[in-house]
Amino acid sequence: MSFSVSRLLRPPLPLSLPPALLPRTSLRNFHATAPRLTLLDSTTALLTDLHTTTGLSWGVLVPLTAITLRLFLTTPFTLYSRSKTATIIRLLPLQEARAHHHAKTLKDVMLPDAWENAVRIAATRDRIELWKRWKCQRWKLYLPMLQLPVWVLASATLRALLPTKKEGEVDTFVDFFGGVTTPPVVEGLETEGLLWFTDLTTTDSTMVLPAVFALGVLANVRFQLWANPPETQKQKRWGNALSVLAVPMFVLSAGMPTLLVSYWTASSLYSVALSVALHRWYKLPMRIRRCKSIDEVGDMVGKVTVKM
Questions:
Q1: Cβ atoms within 10 A of the Cβ of 80, count?
Q2: Residues 223, 272: contact at Cβ < 8 Å?
């Protein structure tokens, strides 16, 4: 038998087996696209880039971030909503006059049981039409609530920056927003705090920062109740419930790292400052109180008129 050099150098012929008969380990799949980035990947990268480019410590950057977000994202909605509230207050006398007209007109042609329901429906229809004409629909009064998604997303971003206690541990709050593709390695969180809380990855053992945060929440609620006294029992109950909210806020923040609590504290103190500034320089118009009713028509108007 003779061998040739060209035959030895010739590559072996590939097996012509169909893919279905090949073992799964021999099949390799490739994907041309890069892994999808999550929302927290973008927000954490933005915050770390700000820390690097500005040279600010984390203890200064986090409160400034809270104030900046409130100033440019939520304050415009608050001002817009307050202007619509002022328009609604100016429309209340016209609202009551229309309700009085309906009550007086329908009183003689309807039974007492159906009278109140008919007046309420007519007053509600007039209110919706009046508010729509003046572009002050009810949903515009709740625009300041848009600060809650911003607050939650910012809190999740700060949680994603914190180191995990155990390797492979999953933060449920961070995972709710899709998590982070690659956990960031953040430097300075243990040493760049402020005043007595230099380590931002641990809780505040003195409980001063959680107390300031809870007092800021309580002060904002009580100031709103003082500036706009509730007129109905339902409004009073809501005000008292929001005041009690400061207690669970203190308990929650007491067990959180100071990186998060410093953001929450700056946000709550900004809310108090904004409420005081609006009351001082952007007052709502004085409400024209309805005269005390002397008949059942006036009592009906008081029932069906929307309380602000």
A1: 14
A2: yes
Q: What is the pLDDT of residue 27?
A: 47
**SS3 assignment, position 197:** strand
d(CA 61, CA 215): 22
pLDDT digits (tens, 9 = 90+) for 228-242: 887 778 888 888 888
Residue 79, C-beta contacts closer than 8 angstroms, at least 6 positions apart: 282
235 burial via Cβ count (<10 Å: 0-12, 13-18, 19+): middle
Q: Are 92 and 100 in contact (CB under 8 A)?
A: no
Q: Which two tokens stand for residue 69?
A: 């977000």
Predicted confidence at residue 118, as pLDDT, reads: 82
Q: Within a 13 Å sphere around the CA of 273, how many CA atoms are in the beta-carbon half?
A: 10
**Inter-residue contact 26 to 139 (CB < 8 Å):** no
Task: Say what the pTM is.
Answer: 0.76
Axis-axis angle for helices 147-161, 39-54 (nearest 10) = 70
Cα 187 to chain center, whole Å?
28
Which of 130, 89, 144, 95 lies closest to 284 in space, CA to CA? 89
